[in-house]
């Protein structure tokens, strides 16, 4: 079991038995065989019946993979050999300095020792930043629920709340437990996070948005439909805020689009002023394609109710900016823009709206769309819009002659 690097044969005991590659972080498992940590972890996580790859002996891990003993001697030998032969040493992988028992102790102190809470939360955040295995160990230890339980609306505990929120933003919530957080009659979890969204630093608001997004993605539909009105008010502020990062804006848009499929939430979003915020986001011409797509998706959802359509057509730039995105951003954006225009033309097409669609170039853009390559469904929807108001639009001088020939009969 050996291979060559250039003209030099690598000693067999420097190679990982699984990958036959030079080991970066050699560890020994209970069967006595040494592997590269990354490859043996992959093996264990992928195996239904966990066994040693070489000896085939079962590995008793009891749901934990913290069974490795770092082989520092072999690691030093590998680096010495590489130096001697003028070969670049394998890139060092961060060696884990934490185990499940340490994680359990930190979480226990967070829950039961207020005087130690601040320092323990800082330690956990430090581990998440420096140790690749910390996230996995925290999730396995039920960290999300334990850390979430200490968040309160008490301003005297703001630094603890912000530190806890930073942890929650980096780990995944358990699918079988988040509904309990949302069903809490005192809103002991949601209200403090909305409070941090309202008055926290840009970084804290980004963490809060990420946490709410991950929680609502995992929640039952009944809990999604009962999202608080205050949440949509804060989403509206986030979309408008130019002090937060582009990533935070996208997180807010994803949170919004995850809540919008429920009609009660659409009404709450419209009343919070979200339609105007989304239009202005598109007017500003975000250079991020995904942000534009999410903004159009949100508008499409909100135009599913009469109040949302009324807000869009009432905005001076609403129809124009939606039309402008067609054939400029992506196929996804074009499809969403046409869906929005279809909702308007079918359900909110007053004389003023029909005239405005002609004046701001919506009709010309739709005529262009039916001439170019795009999704069949999108093209058919564009033709349907043109047919709906053909008596007003077809003979208008606002449509260039070279596009008029594409007008569907």
How would you characterize the overall build of this protein?
Helix content is 60%, strand content 3%. With 409 residues, the chain is mainly alpha-helical. Among the domains are: 3-84, Zinc/RING finger domain, C3HC4 (zinc finger) (Herpes Virus-1, 2-Layer Sandwich), CATH 3.30.40.10; 97-220, Leucine-rich Repeat Variant (Alpha Horseshoe). The strands form 2 sheets. The chain has a 3-stranded antiparallel sheet with strand order 4-3-5. Helix 12 (229-240) packs parallel to helix 15 and helix 21 crosses helix 22. The radius of gyration is 29 Å and the shape is globular.
Short précis:
The protein has 409 residues and is mainly alpha-helical. Among the domains are: 3-84, Zinc/RING finger domain, C3HC4 (zinc finger) (Herpes Virus-1); 97-220, Leucine-rich Repeat Variant (Alpha Horseshoe).
Poorly predicted regions: none
Order of helix and strand elements from N to C terminus: EEEEHEHHHHHHHHHHHHHHHHHHHHHHH
Overall, the morphology is globular
Judged by helices, strands and strand pairing, the structural class is mainly alpha
* Average pLDDT metric: 86
Helical run tally: 24
The CATH C-level class name of the domain at 97-220:
Mainly Alpha
CATH topology of the domain at 97-220: Leucine-rich Repeat Variant
Assign a percent range to the helix content. Answer: 55-70%
Strand content of the residues, in percent?
under 5%
Distance between the termini: 74 Å
Instruction: Write out the strand line-up for the largest beta sheet, numbering strands in chain order.
Output: 4-3-5
Tell me about the biggest sheet? 3 strands, antiparallel
CATH architecture of the domain at 97-220: Alpha Horseshoe
Tally the beta strands.
5
